[in-house]
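Researcher: Good morning. I'm working through a list of sequences from a screen, and I'd like to move beyond sequence-only analysis. For each chain I'm collecting a predicted structure so we can compare shapes side by side. This is the next one on the list. No need for commentary yet; just the structure.
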Amino acid sequence: MKILIAGGGTGGHFFSGVAVGEAFLIRNEDNTVVYVGTRNGIEARVGPKEGLDVRFITVSGIKGKGLVARLSALAKLPLSLLQSMWLVLKERPAVVIGVGGYASGPVVLAARLLGRRTAVVEQNSVAGATNRILGKLVHRVFVAFPPATRDFPPGKAEVIGNPVRSRFVQMLTLESTQTVGVGEKLKVLVVGGSQGAHAVNVGMIEAVAGMPEGLRNKLHITHQTGTKDEVLVREGYEKAGVAGKATPFIDDMAAAYRFADVVVCRAGAMTVSELMISRRGSILVPLPSAIYDHQTTNAKVLVDGGAGELVAQDGQLAENLRSALTRLEGDRMALQEMAAKAGALGKPAAAAEVVDVMYRLVGRP
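Model: Good morning. Structure tokens for this chain:
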């Protein structure tokens, strides 16, 4: 059968959709998956490179925009709905799934109006605006974390975890937690997202600069800096005499997770899910400007489960990072306990579960 997966804009939305698409192909290699997004999203850059069939509609976001941008986005809605209806009529998918981002709105709405089976996937602990609206219309809602169920009609949302690509799941789970806390040095992975996080970058430099030399010598830091801060971070660590590597982007994130004892990071939905699947404890610095403060809610899923520590991005960031790393370096058992508890929260079969439910919804074996 043919499956339409709509949404994107950010990697969290798009790669979640790709994971679901791959799961449909694993279920039956004769299935066909079509992705729908915008020419301005990550799907336009990455999708064709990966050999994916990506189609585009004309739509833009409203939430968090200025008046002129909101008016422009509203003016595009009739066209985007017409484009979406034409696409659904032309492709005749059995299933249409929205994965968040404004591109999913008109496509899922058009599919519902045309009698197709529909669902949405919500990656965060707090549902985005598009999914909140669509959740009232679609047949099924899949959420990654329990707090998100509050944003949908009672009993409609099913907690399945975040869909993660199968090969990434396999690589993340290699070696499990056997290497956590082993060795003379505390192996720290710092990731602020694909573009880096300036506040986290500066916080880490200041944190290590204020440590005693004996503690600095016990650290090995692998730091994804983003392009702009690479030199700043590298020189900061060199000046502090800390071993490790500063790089704009880490290609093999699975290997980076496996090498780490603890991860200092933002609390985006996919990062939190990857921490669970890779079984790694974390020091989480939520992005304070995230819509609905959803990164803090994401982080609390790990913190409440004993798998992470939350550090706010404020004037005490460097001091609190220093304190957390100092404590964990001296307590390897705590690292191992955090790792085990992260693993207990993981749901590596999320993408396959979406497929199973949608197959049942269309009456397929």
